[in-house]
UniProtKB/TrEMBL annotation:
It comes from Euplotes crassus. This is EF-hand domain-containing protein. InterPro entries: EF-hand-dom_pair, EF_Hand_1_Ca_BS, EF_hand_dom. Residues 8-43, 50-85 form the EF-hand domain. PROSITE patterns: EF_HAND_1, EF_HAND_2. The keyword Calcium applies.
Length: 85
């Protein structure tokens, strides 16, 4: 049984995937993730420019199994962590 917040997050992730999973393979690769992070930074009015080193660090935090792509589960875990869950 999922709680409401989880449903909101699931829906949010579906929307992210619709926008950013350009090749529709079900995961976000590095370039897709980069677009996603840029968009997020723009939305919170942060400077969307970041160095490759910063990106790599961020990507490693997303990519729990280190296979080079972000799955929906990894994105969800990341969002839950941000929300302090
Ligand atoms: Ca993809
Ligand atoms: Ca992964």
């Amino acid at each position: 049984m999922k709680n409401e917040l989880e449903q909101v997050i699931d829906q949010y992730i579906l929307d992210i995937w619709k926008c950013f999973d350009d090749d529709n393979n079900g995961t976000l690769d590095k370039s897709e993730t980069k677009d996603f992070i840029k968009k997020m930074l723009e939305e919170v009015n942060e400077d969307p420019d970041f160095s490759d080193a910063e990106f790599e660090k961020c990507f490693r935090e997303f990519d729990e199994d280190s296979n080079g792509t972000i799955s929906r589960t990894e994105m969800k875990n990341f969002i839950m962590r941000i929300c302090g869950l």
